[in-house]
Amino acid sequence: MKLIFVTGNPGKFLEAKELLGKYGIRLEQADIEVTEPQSDDLEEVAVKCAEEALKKAGERFIIEDSGLFVNSLNGFPGVYSSYVHRKIGCEGILRLLAGSADRSAYFMAALAYGEPGSGVRLFTGRVDGNVATEPRGKSGFGYDPLFIPFGSHSTFAEMSIEEKNKFSHRAKALKAFASWFLKKYERK
Ligand code: IMP
Question: Which pTM was predicted?
Answer without folding.
Answer: 0.96
